């Protein structure tokens, strides 16, 4: 009898050890899969920008050039969560800044896609074709730097979950607000591309999360599908931003938090402006009190654009204010990574 008990105990111990080993391998696989996905996606972005350069160099039709631009920035939006988290300074040369736009056609301070957008939309003037080609070539050179930098990325599970969460905030303050595509008016499709990026990284964790909480995985997949459908069926003038945030963005953020905790991915002791442990940006104390100001709720006017105010769960923030917090948070993230 004792022999049987001993054998069963040993078998259970082996199974337990194997399960732990499998779970650890699954986490490593998720990180490695994300790196491979990112590498391939950067190459795809480079190809899209190269097609834009060719279209401009060959003086192709305005429609072709504008479509090439749209496809290139959609490719960027898909990897924005990784670029903004690990290379915030390079990201500024690719697509920034986007707030405080002036009325004049050539706007100071714009770089990369933002500078190209005001040259190509709503109409590409023949005199601007050469200028646009030069700007597209500059963008391509920046992507060359991005291709070199991606080799040095060694993300952790904690960083990837935080990057997904922060991209949800970026969708709110750039995509839903229209700030990131004021001339091309392609904000909602770009928000879909950003969600695609989150979805791709999330899928690498699905096999492991399914072991702990299969219902959460099912709900997360339903939310991602429904949120993309909502964006695809909406239009800029009638889209209900506040409803979308309440029903989809906040619930996606909560699910990411639950999945992270189910996987026992720890939170570090760094003090961030946007608390990684908060359920969503509108949760109590989600923003470090030093940066949370009553002034953040003021409706701020910028030429030709209104700054949307989101009033959710008793918290009230403007899109531009959230964007400022993201930029400041990126600086702290970069500092923390360098010192670790």
CATH superfamily: M75 peptidase, HXXE motif
Helix content: 55-70%
Poorly predicted regions: 14-26, 101-106, 294-304
Number of domains: 1
Number of strands: 5
How are helices and strands ordered from N to C? HHHEHHHHHHEEEEH
Query: Strand order across the biggest sheet?
Result: 2-3
**General shape:** globular
Rg, nearest Å: 22 Å
**Major sheet size, sense and barrel closure:** 2 strands, antiparallel
**CATH fold name:** A middle domain of Talin 1
Q: Structural class of the secondary structure composition?
A: mainly alpha
> Would you tell me the overall average pLDDT?
85
Strand residue percentage: under 5%
Q: What is the CATH architecture annotation?
A: Up-down Bundle
Count of alpha/pi helices: 10
What is the CATH domain class?
Mainly Alpha
Q: Alpha-carbon distance between the termini?
A: 54 Å
Topology, please?
Elements: H1 2-57, H2 62-86, H3 88-95, E1 111-112, H4 113-120, H5 129-149, H6 157-175, H7 187-212, H8 214-233, H9 241-262, E2 301-302, E3 305-306, E4 309-312, E5 315-318, H10 319-339
Antiparallel strand pairs: 2-3, 4-5
Helix pairs in contact: 1-2, 1-5, 1-7, 2-3, 2-4, 2-6, 2-7, 4-5, 6-7, 6-9, 6-10, 7-8, 8-9
How would you characterize the overall build of this protein?
This protein is mainly alpha-helical. The protein has a single domain (24-339), classed as Up-down Bundle (A middle domain of Talin 1). It has 10 helices and 5 strands; from the N terminus they run H-H-H-E-H-H-H-H-H-H-E-E-E-E-H. It has helices at residues 2-57, 62-86, 88-95, 113-120, 129-149, 157-175, 187-212, 214-233, 241-262, 319-339; strands at residues 111-112, 301-302, 305-306, 309-312, 315-318. The strands form 2 sheets. Strands 2-3 form a two-stranded antiparallel sheet. Strands 4-5 form a two-stranded antiparallel sheet. A hairpin with a 2-residue loop joins strand 4 and strand 5. Residues 14-26, 101-106 and 294-304 have low confidence and may be disordered.
């Amino acid at each position: 009898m004792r022999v049987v008990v001993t054998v069963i105990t040993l078998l259970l111990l082996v199974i337990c050890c194997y399960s732990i080993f499998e779970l650890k391998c699954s986490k490593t696989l998720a990180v490695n899969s994300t790196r491979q996905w990112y590498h391939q996606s950067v190459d795809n972005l480079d190809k899209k920008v190269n097609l834009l350069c060719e279209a401009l160099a060959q003086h192709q039709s305005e429609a072709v050039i504008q479509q090439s631009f749209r496809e290139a920035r959609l490719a960027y939006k898909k990897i924005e969560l990784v670029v903004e988290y690990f290379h915030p300074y390079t990201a500024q040369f690719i697509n920034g800044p986007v707030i405080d736009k002036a009325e004049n056609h050539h706007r100071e301070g714009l770089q990369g896609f933002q500078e190209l957008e005001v040259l190509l939309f709503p109409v590409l003037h023949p005199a601007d074709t050469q200028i646009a080609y030069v700007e597209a070539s500059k963008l391509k050179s920046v992507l060359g730097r991005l291709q070199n930098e991606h080799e040095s990325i060694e993300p952790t599970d904690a960083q990837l979950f935080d990057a997904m969460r922060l991209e949800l905030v970026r969708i709110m303050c750039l995509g839903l607000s229209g700030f990131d595509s004021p001339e091309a008016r392609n904000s909602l499709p770009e928000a879909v591309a950003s969600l695609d990026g989150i979805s791709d990284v999330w899928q690498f964790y699905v096999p492991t999360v399914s072991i702990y909480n299969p219902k959460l995985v099912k709900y997360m997949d339903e939310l991602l599908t429904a949120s993309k459908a909502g964006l695809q069926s909406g239009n800029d003038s009638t889209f209900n931003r506040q409803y979308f945030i309440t029903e989809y963005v906040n619930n996606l953020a909560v699910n990411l938090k639950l999945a992270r905790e189910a996987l026992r991915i720890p939170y570090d002791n760094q003090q961030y402006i946007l608390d990684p442990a908060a359920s969503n940006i509108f949760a109590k104390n989600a923003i470090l009190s030093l940066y949370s100001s009553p002034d953040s709720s003021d409706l701020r006017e910028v030429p030709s654009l209104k700054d949307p105010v989101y009033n959710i769960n008793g918290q009230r923030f403007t899109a531009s204010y959230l964007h400022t917090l993201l930029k400041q948070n990126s600086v702290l993230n970069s500092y923390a990574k360098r010192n670790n």
